[in-house]
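Retro notes (design track)

What went well: tokenization of the new backbones is finally stable.
What didn't: we kept losing track of which sequence belonged to which structure.
Fix going forward: every design gets posted as structure first, then sequence, in one message. First example under the new rule, 343 residues:
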């Protein structure tokens, strides 16, 4: 039996109090939903800068009224120390997802990225320390690998960060190490690689590629591919990320603490391959998509050419085993977006 199955069976008989920051966001709402369905008590905080109340409404419908009664939501900003301290009170486990994502956004507005990703994280660390939490799991990013050329990416080989966003995530890891040593706060960091899935926002200048392309295909709108389309990414379905967070929060091996782990599927997909897969999936639902043609434009500043994770460390120490490959995840995503965005 997989470790995640054993963990879920264990949680079914034990109720803990969890805090999910960024609870109304893409990943955060999936964590809230998973925890509520496992009978847990959950608190959430979000300032709706990128989160969406519709995500929580969907969680409420999916989890059901009884499970939803175990959820407490606070609209607040992790940039404010008092808000963090209040929402962390009485909490045993923190899953910290709140952040301003997107490399281009950080280049356009580095100050906002710093406040959310670095000052906000420091506030959460202080709140966790003062509340005496049992475990804090925080979201880092594959962006910390920067210009290091090696593939696949392994946790102890990082390069120079290429954007303000990458700087904040690398600094988060340094702060986590210091808090673990100075205050004995039990921490684990998860370096996410290109997470995708239902509820990921397709709108706005900083939308991720998969939701943006899916909704563009439905609407028969232009799809833009940066560069020649041969840049590649290790796309990871959100269900795998939920698994990694739960495993990290409850791992019993003390040697697993105070470390960071790659969270990915462990395979590469080029942008050209991604577009072809998405076009095929959407053409099954909307015939007009079959003749859609992508448009190419220049490379984006600060983008890395290729990204691929070594997930061996997470497998060994956390028991992480991805449940969704890229194809399965894209199909689940296509189903969700097709059901919510009419042609």
């Amino acid at each position: 039996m997989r470790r995640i199955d054993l963990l879920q069976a264990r949680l079914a008989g034990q109720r803990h109090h969890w805090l999910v920051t960024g609870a109304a966001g893409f990943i955060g709402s999936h964590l809230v939903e998973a925890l509520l369905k496992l009978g847990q008590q959950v608190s959430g905080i979000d300032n709706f800068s990128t989160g969406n109340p519709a995500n929580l409404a969907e969680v409420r419908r999916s989890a059901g009224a009884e499970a939803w009664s175990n959820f407490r939501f606070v609209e607040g900003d992790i940039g404010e120390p008092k808000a963090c301290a209040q929402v962390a009170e009485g909490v045993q486990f923190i899953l910290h997802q709140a952040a301003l994502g997107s490399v281009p956004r950080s280049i356009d507005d580095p100050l906002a990225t710093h406040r959310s990703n670095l000052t906000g994280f420091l506030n959460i660390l202080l709140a966790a320390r003062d509340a005496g939490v049992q475990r804090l799991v925080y979201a880092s990013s594959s962006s910390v690998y920067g210009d290091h050329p090696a593939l696949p990416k392994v946790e102890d080989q990082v390069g120079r960060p290429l954007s303000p966003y990458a700087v904040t995530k690398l600094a988060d890891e340094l702060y986590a190490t210091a808090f673990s040593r100075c205050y004995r706060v039990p921490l684990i960091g998860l370096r996410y690689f290109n997470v995708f899935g239902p509820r990921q926002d397709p709108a706005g200048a900083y939308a991720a590629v998969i939701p943006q392309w899916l909704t563009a295909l439905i609407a028969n709108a232009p799809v833009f591919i940066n560069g020649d389309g041969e840049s590649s990414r290790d796309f990871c379905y959100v269900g795998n990320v939920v698994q990694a967070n739960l495993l990290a929060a409850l791992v019993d091996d003390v040697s697993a603490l105070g470390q960071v782990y790659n969270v990915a599927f462990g395979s590469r997909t080029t942008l050209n391959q991604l577009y072809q897969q998405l076009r095929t999936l959407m053409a099954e639902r909307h015939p007009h998509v079959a003749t859609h043609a992508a448009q190419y434009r220049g490379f984006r500043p600060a983008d890395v050419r290729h990204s691929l994770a070594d997930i061996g460390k997470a497998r060994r120490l956390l028991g992480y085993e991805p449940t969704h490959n890229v194809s399965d995840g894209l199909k689940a995503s296509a189903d969700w977006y097709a059901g919510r965005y009419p042609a």
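Added context from the reviewer: Residues 3-195+237-264+308-323 form a domain with the Rossmann fold fold (CATH 3.40.50.720).
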